[in-house]
Amino acid sequence: RAFGLVYEGFDVRTYAILGAAASLNGVVRVLISLPAIMMETTTISTFVSPLMIVCLVSRYIGNGVFRSEGIYDEILKIRKIPFLEEEPPKVTKRLVLRAKDVMSMELVQLQLTMQVQAIFEILQEYNHLDFPVTDPSKGGQLVGSISRATLKAILWKKALSPRSDCDVECEESSAHPEDSPDLSYDQFEFDRLEEVSDTDLVKHFKGEEKCMYMSLARYMTLSPIAFGEDGSAERAFELFRTLGLRQLVVVDSDKIPIGVVTRFDLKVLDEEDDGYDNKAGTLASNGETATTVKSASL
User: Rounded distance, CA 136 to CA 113, Å?
Assistant: First the structure.
């Protein structure tokens, strides 16, 4: 803009628009969206090429001088949110990693019918947003998944079975899910329950009510996305990118959950490519995987 003020015959507004775009792009470091926004804002289609040029230059100068990413990438790092890049980590291709090589060693799973006290213990001990649901009558096969918000909603509404024997075994307690009342989606009140802590949820129940049972069959997702233990880790990465998954349950040939893949597991492959090389290579060559599966007991 100062250059346009010195020399006559130049439109100062042109330099102001391009300078503003360059300054903003030096902060956000984007190439496509910012030129498109500036063009639509100014309604000057002939500015497409100049805007893209100044955005390209400001991005590379910002990366070279400050040695850092854009503000959005830095915010993700500060909040420790794992952002997956467009391309899978190189180690997944070099070592031909399988899902069982990269999955988490700890998996917390629920059963179709559970005691209220057992659900409370899981919610207080783990901060997971989703839980796989298994059916003991089918040998522990994966039959669904349920979110933490849904669990809190049906607990708050006390959708309980009339039975309250604390000593009932797992096989017996999963036989009568029809005993519990049926709630509609409109009754869940998710917005209100966001302010309810796990401690408040426990206080919402009396002592004898904690020994009652709750059926998850009516409220769980019936077709959760699962992944075979021998599936490619590269393919698992693509599923997270395209479907926006929170987690990917890994199952064996009998559809029994043995682990879970999260964004943090895939992000480690990208950040610690060299450090993970030996560890993953050993697992892949030996065909071994260390997995600890925690199943909620009744």
Answer: 10
Q: Are 84 and 238 in contact (CB under 8 A)?
A: no
Short-list 93, 139, 145, 123, CA closest to 270: 93
pTM for the structure as a whole:
0.66
Nearest to 56 by CA among 72, 87, 86, 34: 34
CB atoms within 10 A of CB 280: 23
Residue-wise pLDDT tens digits, 104-160: 878 888 988 888 888 888 888 888 888 999 999 888 899 999 988 888 888 877 766
Closest CA to 140 of 257, 244, 245: 257
Cβ contact 24:17 at 8 Å = no
Residue 257: strand pairing partners: 251
Q: Is the separation of the CB atoms in 294 and 108 below 8 Å?
A: yes
Strands 130-135 and 141-147: antiparallel
Alpha helices (runs of H) in the chain, residue ranges in sequence order: 2-6, 12-28, 33-42, 48-66, 71-78, 90-94, 99-102, 116-125, 148-156, 170-173, 190-193, 198-203, 233-243, 263-271, 273-286
Q: Say which residues have a Cβ less than 8 Å from residue 24's Cβ, sequence separation at least 6.
A: 34
